[in-house]
What does this fold into?
Amino acid sequence: MTTAISTTEPTQVRAGDTVKWTRSLSDYPPTTWTLSYALRGVPGEIDITASDNGDGTHLVSVTPATSAAWEPGIYSWAAQVTDGTDVYTVDAGTIEVLEDLSAISGSHDGRSHAKKVLDAIEAVIQKRASRSDLSYTIAGRTLQNMTPKEIRDEWSFWKSRVVMEARAERIANGEAGGGRILARFT
It folds into this structure.
């Protein structure tokens, strides 16, 4: 089975996979200009140089061995072209590098950060359901718990993050986003 090569930069890639896309830049043909990508984020730095695809487009092609070294996380990227003298930024965006699941041995917690925090808050709510103390003192040290309102506010914040992630995943999988569409006809 042959996979079609995208003509735009991906928004997600998985470390350890082959990564390919082409980019058509009529003002900057690959016979004269070199296209390169600089990805920067908290996980690290990734630099990619495209080649001439032979059809007037720039080809980005990354081997599985190269992408396996990429750290998972969100990266900002900038695409630049150069002819050896001039340099122009032609586009920018963000990309998420996902974990290489085949490189993980043993158990794995695939929940997002937002889902982990939401689950922890729900565990606190469950433990606190039968308690009414907001603070207590032991040996001269006082511990102040979050108020029920503070817990609800945190729960609401993280719940909305988890819902947004689920919606984005459904859309990425070609499914309906699940949001309401409101319309008014006048």
Q: What stands out?
A: The longest strand covers residues 87-98.
